[in-house]
Write a structure and sequence with these properties.
About 35% of the residues lie in helices and about 25% in strands. It has helices at about 45-55, 65-75, 90-100, 120-140; strands spanning about 5-10, 15-20, 30-35, 40-45, 80, 85-90, 105-110, 115. The strands form two sheets. A six-stranded antiparallel beta sheet has the order 1-7-8-4-3-5. A two-stranded antiparallel sheet has the order 2-6. It starts with 5 loop residues before the first strand and ends with a helix.
């Protein structure tokens, strides 16, 4: 499954968020939420989590950078289930980390989803657009 697109949603008063309908079937077996490397939450399917977490666990604990990444990944990970309406409770530590308030944006990034506060995502968009423009510039000559 490749996650793509942007989807705006709201966090309900109980701290739950509805997963975009088109992706719910992927999370029928559970959903893993963890801190992203940017101020967002990463949402993995069990299969994608298995691949990602295995790659992190394989890093040598003798390297400081690997230890820090292990702590960030596993120390903030939550193994959760969707309810019958396709919602998941966003744990308070993750909401606090990503400053998730009422309005959020799901962003597809291939093998996982990112969950951003809508305002923070709008601040991030110029960087995304700039990177896309640089990619266009670098591939322009290759198509000739």
């Amino acid at each position: 499954m490749q996650f793509h697109g942007e989807y705006q949603h709201r966090i309900d008063p109980q701290g739950r968020i509805a997963i975009p309908a088109r992706f719910r079937y992927v999370f029928r077996g559970g959903i893993f939420l963890t801190k992203g490397l940017d101020p967002c939450v990463w949402a993995f399917s069990p299969e994608s989590w298995g691949e990602w977490s295995a790659s992190i666990a394989a890093m040598s604990p003798s390297r400081r950078q690997a230890r820090v990444l292990r702590r960030a990944t596993f120390g903030s990970a939550f193994d959760l289930e969707l309810d019958r309406q396709g919602r998941v409770l966003l744990p308070q530590p993750l909401r606090r980390f990503a400053d998730l308030n009422e309005e959020v944006v799901f962003v597809g990034t291939g093998n996982y989803l990112e969950i951003w506060d809508r305002h923070k995502w709008e601040e991030e968009l110029p960087f995304v657009e700039e990177a896309a423009a640089r990619m266009d510039d670098s591939t322009e000559g290759a198509s000739r």
